């Protein structure tokens, strides 16, 4: 596909003066925009999408113009090159798919209300005003907004408001920035304000449907994170304020608009009376991620979307650095190993996956870059790997130099490597290029042959994969001395293994310490035996890593599932929360071999019950004053697995907790609420209970609770309930479009309800595209199917469904990836199911 034209090559904007008049009742707005900048040619085009432009003037003179909806542009001529002023007058509709300027709906005290907000990333500013809507086209913005304002309503934006005359709210001139970072939100909001030690005003805004106290936790986190980043980056936060705004309808998790960050409410607000530590950690990590972008992404911005990873990979890593610094007792890096690592390992093992840096040759391809497993999770692992390789001092110094040189400008990946190389004296580009530019990752095979330690690397695949001989610069991160720092060849042989072992105290040989690099390790039988024998002495992250490796190696056909199951059996009294999470991930992966209501399920449940029985009995069902963060987080996991395994005490306890809170199920303690709600459906489902869950879902403003209700009711054993759930998918008053993919996933991931959910998607795909098609969430439906389907018939049904749009830029790669995933699962089941079923008969 040929590269499309960059409009910034022809016109370089310097300032936008924007006036918008928004009417919520008619769902329309009027706009007037004056753009000053430099014309480099006399034939000019600006981006626009669905704008009804009525006039264009150049330097005060009206000119003819033409609209091209296919290229999303308005074209016109200017009399000469050089300094140019262009005025546009236009009108447009508010969107209904959470892009551009859009209404966001909620209920407060029985009244239906709305906030109006913006989402301009990636290329949706053009839906609000004519612009050079490309990240390199940085300019300043003077924004004024009028709206059908009611008493008590307010509006916030990137910069402070400097005047309000006759209902026209005018904001101070922004710093130089990309169009996708402009933002505003207006409506009936509450707020909590504070200040950093350097004087930056920080505020959290939300609708008044929420408890005021729900704003306290995010405000505290935001203030402390800004202070940490200022110290770490050695660059002051560059704006007068940092607003954090919760929107009732928001497709992504959050958006880093400079000084006016917008969030899905579940990613910002924290119920002070009944929330889990995990949910508060999630909020803290999202806030830290978006604040990292205020420097890395906003102050310094990628030149084009192919370097999106410069924004997202870095911010995804820095969120953990920041939260670890301000809340060290959370041990957040342990969470990194059970969240980001498996996500990246799973998707990056599929042949055809995109690389972290990938070319973008069509606007519709931009949103496909936002692959959480690659640009975010894998990219973050690579940045963690680089930080460990360089050391934190050199890493921080390199970042300071990077910001100092490139602030308010645009960069490519090489610019970051140059800054880090200068600070560290190491060739960062040579080290990182193989990781950023190549898809996939290696498996490091470690063996001892004739007293030689042999290290080999090759690309790892799950399912069919074409080995193209790719090589990586693998940081060995070993616990032994006397070994190389980096493996860059396909194979290296190191003589004198016995002597090396003696010099290292004969301790088990380990690679990829702290799971800090993006590869698997496969030890030979003798080395594996020594490692396995020492498992009880290892730190938690090493234990997690061993479980993850055993699972992936089995899925890739490089080891037996028996190795995984035998390893899991050694953790039958494991007190670490993150190790138990890794065990749970492995067990959920093993479930694909287990058919419901069969002897194999009985045997599997017996194994599960043995694994979690000791921790279930140790922790019980109730929080204990003064208990560790670890125990607070762990409690729900053994409870959940013991309920799944039909432990009589666990099932009875769950039902008892439900009955104690039956009049207010939201009051069930948050850490065990999910398992209690689900168990009640599994054990005692009635039409009345299902309706009770739907009523609670409609009433609550707690989106965490809503997701728990979704998962619980979707665990039904009644097809009539499945039909009831599906009948609500298009009821946007109940199931917000932002949450539809979660509802769909809950049904399509279960064999019982899969066919019905898929049939609904096939029949309603056009409607889904209408609601979500302009946004990055649309492709998630395809990914969910790829994760769930597992037969030839289902594969063919998927192929038939996607045939009409398989070559569309927004879907092409996602569809091919899903087909590969499904085919891999079919082959895996054919090859391994009988063996795994037999394994659980004997263990």
UniProtKB/TrEMBL annotation:
Q: Which UniProt keywords apply?
A: Aminopeptidase, Hydrolase, Metal-binding, Metalloprotease, Protease, Zinc
What residues sit in the active site? 290 (proton acceptor)
Q: Give start and end of each Peptidase M1 membrane alanine aminopeptidase domain.
A: 217-435
Q: Pinpoint the ERAP1-like C-terminal domain residues.
A: 509-823
Q: Where is the Aminopeptidase N-like N-terminal domain?
A: 12-181
Q: Name one GO molecular function term.
A: zinc ion binding
As its record notes, the protein acts as a catalyst of:
Release of an N-terminal amino acid, Xaa-|-Yaa- from a peptide, amide or arylamide. Xaa is preferably Ala, but may be most amino acids including Pro (slow action). When a terminal hydrophobic residue is followed by a prolyl residue, the two may be released as an intact Xaa-Pro dipeptide
Q: Which domain of life is it from?
A: Bacteria
Q: What is its EC number?
A: 3.4.11.-
Q: Does this UniProt record's set of keywords contain Iron?
A: no
**Could you give the subunit structure recorded for this chain?**
Monomer.
Q: Which PANTHER family match?
A: PROTEASE M1 ZINC METALLOPROTEASE (PTHR11533), PUROMYCIN-SENSITIVE AMINOPEPTIDASE-RELATED (PTHR11533:SF174)
Protein task? Aminopeptidase with broad substrate specificity to several peptides. It has more affinity for oligopeptides than for dipeptides. It plays an essential role in the metabolism, it may be involved in nitrogen supply or protein turnover.
What name goes with this protein? Aminopeptidase
- Its source organism is Pseudolactococcus laudensis
Species lineage? Bacteria, Bacillati, Bacillota, Bacilli, Lactobacillales
């Amino acid at each position: 596909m040929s590269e499309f034209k960059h409009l910034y090559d022809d016109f370089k904007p310097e300032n936008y003066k924007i006036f918008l008049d928004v009417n919520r009742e008619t769902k329309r707005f009027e706009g007037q925009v004056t753009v000053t900048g430099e014309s480099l040619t006399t034939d000019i085009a600006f981006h626009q999408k669905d704008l009804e432009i009525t006039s264009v003037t150049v330097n005060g003179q009206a000119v003819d113009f033409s609209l091209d909806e296919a290229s999303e542009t308005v074209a016109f001529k200017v009399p000469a090159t050089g300094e140019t002023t262009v005025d546009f007058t236009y009108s447009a509709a508010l969107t209904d798919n959470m892009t551009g300027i859009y209404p966001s709906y909620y209920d407060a005290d029985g009244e239906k209300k709305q906030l109006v907000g913006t989402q301009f990333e990636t290329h949706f500013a053009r839906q609000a005003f004519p612009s050079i809507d490309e990240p390199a086209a940085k300019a300043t913005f003077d924004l004024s907004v009028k709206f059908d304002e009611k008493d008590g309503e307010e509006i916030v934006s990137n910069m402070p408001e400097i005047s309000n005359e006759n209902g026209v709210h005018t904001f101070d001139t922004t710093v130089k920035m990309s169009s996708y970072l402009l933002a505003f939100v207006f409506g009936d909001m509450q707020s909590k304000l504070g200040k950093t030690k350097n004087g930056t005003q920080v505020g959290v805004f939300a609708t008044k449907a929420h408890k005021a106290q729900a704003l306290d936790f995010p405000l505290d986190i935001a203030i402390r994170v800004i202070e940490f980043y200022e110290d770490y980056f050695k660059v002051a936060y560059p704006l007068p304020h940092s607003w954090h705004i919760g929107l009732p309808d928001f497709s992504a998790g959050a958006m880093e608009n400079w000084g006016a960050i917008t969030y899905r409410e579940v990613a910002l607000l924290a119920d002070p009376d009944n929330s889990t530590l995990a949910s508060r950690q999630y909020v803290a990590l999202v806030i830290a991620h978006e604040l990292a972008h205020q420097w890395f992404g906003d102050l310094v911005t990628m030149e084009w979307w192919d370097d999106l990873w410069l924004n997202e990979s870095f911010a995804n890593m820095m969120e953990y650095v920041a939260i670890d610094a301000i809340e060290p007792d959370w041990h957040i890096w342990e969470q990194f190993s059970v969240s980001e690592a498996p996500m990246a390992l799973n998707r990056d093992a599929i042949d055809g996956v995109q690389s972290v840096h990938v070319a973008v040759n069509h606007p519709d391809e931009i949103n496909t870059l936002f692959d959480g497993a690659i640009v975010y999770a894998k990219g973050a692992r690579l940045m963690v790997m680089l930080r460990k390789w360089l050391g934190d001092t050199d890493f921080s110094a390199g970042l300071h130099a990077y910001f100092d040189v490139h602030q308010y400008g645009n960069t490519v990946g090489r610019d970051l490597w140059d800054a880090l190389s200068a600070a560290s004296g190491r060739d960062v580009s040579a080290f990182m290029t193989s990781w950023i530019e190549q898809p996939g990752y290696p498996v490091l095979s470690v063996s001892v042959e004739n007293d030689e330690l042999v290290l080999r690397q090759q690309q790892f695949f799950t399912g069919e994969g074409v080995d193209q001989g790719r090589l990586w610069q693998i940081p060995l991160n070993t616990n032994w001395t006397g070994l190389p720092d980096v493996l860059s060849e396909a194979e290296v042989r190191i003589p004198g293994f016995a002597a090396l072992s003696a010099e290292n105290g004969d301790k088990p040989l380990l690679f990829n310490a702290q799971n800090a690099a993006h590869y698997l390790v496969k030890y030979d039988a003798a080395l594996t035996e020594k490692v396995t024998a020492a498992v009880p002495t290892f730190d938690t992250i090493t234990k997690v890593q061993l479980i993850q490796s055993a699972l992936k190696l089995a899925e890739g056909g490089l080891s037996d599932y028996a190795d995984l199951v035998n390893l899991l059996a050694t953790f039958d009294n494991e007190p670490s929360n993150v190790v138990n999470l890794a065990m749970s991930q492995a067990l959920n992966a093993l479930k694909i071999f287990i058919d419901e209501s069969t002897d194999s399920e009985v045997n599997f449940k017996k194994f599960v019950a043995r694994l979690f029985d000791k921790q279930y009995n140790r922790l019980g069902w109730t929080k204990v004053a003064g208990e560790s963060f670890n125990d607070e987080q762990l409690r729900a996991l053994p409870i959940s697995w013991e309920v799944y395994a039909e432990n009589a005490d666990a099932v009875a306890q769950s039902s008892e907790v439900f009955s104690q809170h039956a009049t207010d199920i939201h009051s069930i303690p948050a850490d065990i609420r999910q398992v209690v709600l689900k168990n009640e459906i599994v054990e005692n489902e009635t039409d009345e209970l299902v309706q009770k869950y739907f009523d609670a879902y409609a009433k609550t403003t707690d989106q965490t609770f809503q997701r728990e209700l979704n998962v619980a009711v979707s665990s039904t054993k009644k097809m009539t309930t499945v039909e009831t759930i599906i009948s609500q998918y298009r009821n946007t008053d109940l199931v917000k479009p932002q949450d539809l993919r979660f509802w769909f996933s809950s049904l399509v991931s279960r064999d019982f309800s899969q066919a019905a959910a898929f049939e609904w998607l096939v029949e309603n795909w056009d409607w889904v595209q209408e609601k979500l098609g302009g946004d990055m969430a649309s492709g998630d439906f395809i990914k969910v199917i790829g994760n769930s389907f597992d037969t030839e018939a289902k594969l063919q049904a998927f192929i038939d469904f996607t045939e009409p749009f398989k070559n569309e830029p927004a879907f092409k790669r996602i569809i091919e990836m899903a087909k590969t995933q499904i085919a891999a699962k079919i082959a895996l089941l054919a090859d391994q199911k009988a063996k795994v079923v037999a394994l659980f008969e004997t263990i």
